[in-house]
């Protein structure tokens, strides 16, 4: 099937320019290249926990994303996972892909590359289908891998497959079935992923190091901290001076700082169903912003400055985070 979008050749060869290669002979992280704007800046939107065929205000969030995306001329969109509810995709011919993605994110400002990671709900379906490059024949914005790197001239993005870290999906799956093809043996998979990520972060000379995963590391929302990521992933982020950890999983928007590092923890999981009503006070002393509702984040980067703006379903600015090399400040 041919894509319903007639994307221009310049988009395909320019802003959508992706070069697939391996980071090193021993590393499993695929490395992609994405060009920045001519003025040296980069901008992108962050959305998570969205795929509900337009329901639960998914379409309304998409409409505001399109407006902001066009105004900022964003370079790409980042999805933090749980791309298709409730149980991922059934196969390459599952109409859920078009009904939850192609037919929802139709705005002009969203016709850019989408970089997607998997969430726990995606693992309940046919994971190999969601990773299949054949989806690019249906909608060539789509790119989903387990873990990978997107390199730009001013920032490197490290996308991490966080679902296999979480013990309960293996030990207490309840009535759910998870597709662990490509993950087992689990211990080896996680060990290799952590080694490859640590090596890639250590070798990075980017102005900004941004790590993206589905699960929270720090959160005051429904799920709270993910203890397995706090134990295994967070030390690597601290040691390698990561600037932002961006996640979904909790269906809210939040910003949490760190008293022991420069990492800023941003949650963008308000792509559709939200308003859970839970609030965990564990990280309240580090909490900068929390919104128990739908929305998304827009991030703008230059070599020396970064800003993240949190928007609600009406396009209202809820919170601003501004970073510069050597300083940090945020405004509600």
UniProtKB/TrEMBL annotation:
Region forming the signal peptide: 1-27
EC number: 3.1.3.2
Residues at which Fe cation 1 binds: 49, 82, 85, 251
Catalysis performed (reactions): a phosphate monoester + H2O = an alcohol + phosphate
Cofactor entry: Fe cation
Cofactor binding comment, as recorded: Binds 2 iron ions per subunit.
Protein name per UniProt: Purple acid phosphatase
Species, as recorded: Ficus carica
Species lineage: Eukaryota, Viridiplantae, Streptophyta, Embryophyta, Tracheophyta
